[in-house]
Give the backbone structure.
Amino acid sequence: MAVSDLAYPALVYVHLLLFVLWLGADVGVFVLGQHFRRREDYTLDQRIALLKLLVEIDMVPRSAWALMVPLSLSVVDLGNWWDVPGWLLWGAWAIGLFWLWLVWDSHWHDQTPRAARNRAIEGWLRWIIGGFYLWLGGQSLLTDAPLQPDWLAWKALLFGFIFVAAIMIDVAFKPVGAQLAAVLEQGSNDETEIPLRKTMDRTRIWVWAVYVLLLITAFLGNVKPI
């Protein structure tokens, strides 16, 4: 088998691997979050340790998310599902790698103005890319172009909705910083813990939305229903 013949199945394999890492690690984040909520079973120090581990594991799905963007377009192109314009394909890789750098640079410089700047840029990127996939899927369903199979158009559309749901996770989770600081400063009690618990409960709604959308897109990509 020629090297060129291996390119497409290799990319499909990496695409599947990113899906496994994204969903698998995200479930780990979810489980750690569930244990963090159980203040009756853990000391505050133990719960903070769980939260630190949660943040570390969360880097896996965040990294997979960034790489999934250029990889998905590469798979579509090599699979002859769409002759992706060269400028778009190379631009997607440049943006995806830049996004990946933003994710890790923010992690390495957490709680600094540099991290805040990076996350602001990342926020704009996610809305723009999510909007692109919503357009790509919607346009293809309406006109059969540029993605002709309906299952692929639906996959692109749902990937756009994954962006929306994942962005909303960060939006819903944003108050946690101040609420967690209140727990550390004032101690663990109903006054400090209940608002934190409510924020985490609201965040879980969007987490479940991401899980459902990921499973549906994976089904479409593997089964390819006509």
Observations:
- The chain has a mean pLDDT of 95.
- The chain is about 85% helix and 0% strand.
- The helical segments are 3-36, 44-57, 59-78, 86-108, 113-143, 150-173, 176-186, 190-223.
